[in-house]
Write a structure and sequence with these properties.
homotetramer; about 200 residues; mainly alpha; Tetracycline Repressor, domain 2; 10 helices; elongated; DNA-binding
DNA sequence: TATGAATGAGACTTCATTCAT
DNA sequence: TATGAATGAAGTCTCATTCAT
């Protein structure tokens, strides 16, 4: 016997995975076709419409799903590290793993404007996006508290300043690391060290 | 008689301006139609094809043009300021002015991945993009030299670290400022002060 | 245990009733969907194909069934009246009851061309349609004989003329009565009286 | 130089003619495809959408056009006859010419319900349909006045009765004549004579 | 036997591009 | 040179039909 609770999501998940796979192959969400999704998810074109009311909904929900899963995964990995430095490095590893993919969670979420740029139809799901954004701040909180506990960073900072620093360090790393193809001087260890230095200096 | 040299660019520029105007209205480059461009530029659809070989080329070149003009404009504004702090603030003002537009020069250029996300066809123009990217580094150089001269920041830093810091501060500001609609605590002065603080601390 | 003889027709009838109900709701036979029929008949979509080989067959047979039942019903009601005038009025009542429904037996049958217009796939069932048409002529015969017996109409008329008169009176009434929504002067009694007058005058 | 007044209608008319041709070939308006219209009208599929906003609008307007032209044509032919009997015969000739076509003006217009049955999307154009209906009554008026003048029919009749008679005679003829394929006894002269007899008797 | 999830052919419609003027 | 009417390829979505359960 199949549980309905798990069954419906099964097909939806196939669509999600298909969309993500296509984006990781380099397709922009705007250029993805229904037939692409269907064949990638190994379902009929019509089936997609049994679970989503339009192509745009399917793609939007796939992105939201990917962000949700990705953030949970990131948080788990961050929690699994015990030291401040390693927690931060874990975030950078996640960034580095996604930097070549066409869909980088942090780049989508950091700045709601980027969301608009990334896929306009996502604006229909502002509520979920904001929920995800607050998840990022949870991760930041977790990270900062550990840093304070270790004495690595100072306590009592304006939380907006603190978040801007973390975001700046992450996006600075992301940019720097993204340039590695045409800048042989770049390597991940150096970039991670640099980002961590920013963090320490700006929060002390 | 009209000189071809000046005449061609006239029409091309009309297309560029039309594309930019559409994007500032909130249209995503992927959703812009040739007929949109033609009516915005007040030319016939066929005319566009006398100057560009495809819609994608027209849009890509419009974006490149916008970036070029925008960077020159930014550099001029930065140069017009005499103090380190004011030069940096000038960059942040440019960011703030573009943050609501659908086309933010820094967000497009900072991180080549974002370029891909923003408009995949831009990858055909990697050379020009890199030239623009080096223009950003020129601005960074100009800014940093002034900071060193003033004694505001320390000399002799690894240039990659320096650029990551500046980029991080800029993108951190961009993100922080972008959130202002759902975070009443945000205001530009505070955000600018925070970004400047990051800069000073991380570069000392 | 259920007898197949009675069981099969049970499901078929559910389909017939479902189709009729949909048409009475205003759906055109061409716009009826299999899923509409299935949910209206409270059966699965697949079940329909156990009893009919296609949607078109199901709809066609439903219409034929409705015509058959409707004609039998009409004949019964006509027979139940003893006087010529009342028999004719009974036919007009049937017309009036169906005039708002999307499926009017007389309009479908009177003129085979209308049949084509109403639902092209009915042409596959020309034999049954003609049988039904002859049923109408039976009703006409029954009516005319009574009229002659009563002395209300003259005997010995060319039967084609007689049928044209009756048909003309019925369709004239149908048209006149159909206009009642935008012609406040129309009311059923007046329309029935007028149709009866045509009948008497033309057949005397 | 091309007159815009005549040019736009040119393409629209090609569509109208295409739709009518398809219907005369026996296609039901519901089963006509855009590609059918395009190839029949010898235009590209996209061109249809430069002149109509949907397939349904194109078909509806084609039918309305056909009715309008047909009624004008009918009225002209009726006026061209000088005698009452010939005027009425002219109407019957029009009916006879259309009886095999899938689109019979009188059958569509006589009874608004039939309109619904014929092509549901026509209900969007109720205003035009009613205007056409009143054109029919103009023809009836013209016919009746001539009959009175000639002394063929009596004056002072209730106009609703009069119209019901004319409509009944026309539809009776239409039905009778439509049966000619399976009733060898039918021939047009006899049917016309019968319809005229109904007219005379019922209006005297 | 009965079902309805799944399918994919095929319909409508859009829009980049062409080309006669 | 400049135009925009015309085109048709290509995309989205629907829905009749099938078939595993």
């Amino acid at each position: 016997m199949i549980l309905e609770d798990s069954w419906y999501p099964q097909k939806r998940k196939a669509v999600y995975d298909g969309v993500i796979a296509l984006m990781e192959k380099g397709l922009n969400p705007y250029t993805i076709k229904v037939s692409d999704i269907a064949s990638e998810a190994d379902i009929g074109k019509g089936t997609l419409y049994d679970y989503f009311s339009s192509k745009e909904e399917a793609i939007s929900r796939a992105i939201l799903y990917y962000i949700k899963i990705g953030l949970e995964h990131t948080f788990t990995r961050v929690k699994d590290q015990s030291k401040f430095k390693n927690k931060f490095h874990e975030i950078l590893h996640v960034i580095a793993e996604q930097v070549d993919s066409n869909i980088s969670i942090f780049r989508i979420l950091l700045s709601v404007g980027a969301t608009q740029e990334f896929y306009g139809y996502l604006s229909e799901y502002r509520g979920e996006l904001l929920a995800h954004l607050s998840k990022i701040h949870e991760i930041y909180d977790h990270l900062a508290k550990c840093g304070v506990r270790e004495g690595a960073i100072r306590d009592g900072r304006d939380p907006y300043y603190r978040d801007m620093v973390i975001t700046g360090a992450i996006l600075g790393f992301s940019q720097y690391f993204g340039e590695r193809y045409f800048n042989p001087a770049v390597n991940m260890e150096r970039a991670m060290a640099a980002a961590y230095t920013i963090l320490l200096k700006a929060l002390n």
